[in-house]
Amino acid sequence: MKIRILLSRHPTSRYDSSFSVFPFKFFSSVSNSPQNDDAGTVYRIITSSTSSVNLIESLKSTGIFLSNDIIDNVLKRFRFSHGNPLQAFEFFKYTGKRRGFYHTASSLDNMLYILGRSRKFDLIWEVLIEAKKKDRSLITPRTMQVVLARVAKVCSVTEVVKSFWKFKKLVPELDTLCFNALLRTLCQEKSMTDARNVYHRLKHEFRPNLQTFNILLSGWKSSEEAEEFFEEMRVLGIRPDVVTCNCLVDVYCKNREMEKAYTMVEKMRNKEMWPDVITYTSLIGGLGLIGQPDKARDVLKEMKEHGCYPDVPAYNAAIRNYCIAKRLDDAYSLMDEMVGKGLSPNANTYNLFFRVFFWSNDLKSSYTLYQRMMDSGCLPSTQSCMFLIRLFRRHEKVGMALRLWNDMVEKDFGSFTLVSDVLFDLLCDLGKLVEAEKCFLQMIEKRQKPSNVSFRRIKVLMELANKYDAVQNLREQMAVFGPSNQLPGGEENLTETPDLDSLNVNHARRN
Description:
Number of strands: 0
PPR repeats: 241-275, 276-310, 311-345, 346-380
Region (Disordered): 485-511
Low-confidence stretches: 1-32, 485-498, 502-511
Largest sheet: none
Keywords: Repeat
Number of helices: 26
Strand content: under 5%
Protein name: Pentacotripeptide-repeat region of PRORP domain-containing protein
Oligomer: single chain
Mean pLDDT: 86
Pfam families: PPR, PPR_2, PPR_3
């Protein structure tokens, strides 16, 4: 079950970022270096090739040396642009066949991610078997987590565990690190309950360590159950650390058991296990849940007295309390205080306000805040865009909607698929066919597939306006994405946008 409280986060993220499925550097913006220009050229050749023979001949004709860095960049482009997985696979195979060449771990993981997203599981195992033959060291616990995460998206927990055991023939040793990768995958892609059940089934096969418990202790709803798990650690002789204790503080705060939370913090101090910013952020969230936003704000000051300085998520937790209490002046005051301390509000900060404005139908405040957000250089998240575009549609503000869309196209933020569905509904409802066609083509230029529902709506309007040539052009443009019932990444198309509160806002504690 997904935890839907703002302060619910995986508590090991700050301490164990090296184990995440993809390092942060994968998400950094692409620089304009000659190497990236070459990667762009190679990517265009691959996506425009009509056959394997044509692909190889075209790549050879460029004279570009396909180094590991260029290959990495090309595969990242496929991943983030939802490119054709089979084209990426052909490129990966071709470069891997060169004498004396070895793919990097990041190239392997990106390729597996691309194939997994489109459910090409047979090809995943083919790639892994070939990697084992050439360089077994490339198959790491992180690689395992990439594969298991994609399996978990569409398969049962039983199938995920079966896939885990397949790695026994691929890695030097199926050890505790691998076991932890399985548990982390289940926590992220299934539920904490699933992860804990699998732990109890398999714990005698492995030797649980501190990281194992730090993974499993996150996200408890029942403080009694969390305490029992905490006791199991003690029985096994595993000494908790700050991360472990933070999990218990967090579950107490989520259950409004603030006395227990403060007692736990005091025990940490007595053992010279100093509370960190995550500890205090949990306290801030807990105080907000019991209706004490002012006392939560005082925690920000208390932190400094203990040599721990609040970060953006800590301020976000305090701001959230005021937003829930509809005390927006205090919330804005805290955001200004953040800026004064040299901290930059992020998309999650703004989303706290956007949510209030959306449900109160406050168009003016939303648009003013959006302008402030863009002026500050903070790019909106998908949730920010959805709050805004739905409000613009409700008020039939085409100009504002197009401003948001053009910013998305220019600065490349947000989900084009989700936002475009609402935008095209607005434009079609008001008969803005020229604008709809332009946005549609802009989306295709970004290699983002419009939904079939949007395509059909625009197509009907064009036919009514006798614009049959334009219809044919759009149909040809859509053909590059393959079968009409699939998105570019191979996942089934959705005709409805998700609920705003499900768009990853409440899982962004450390963002």
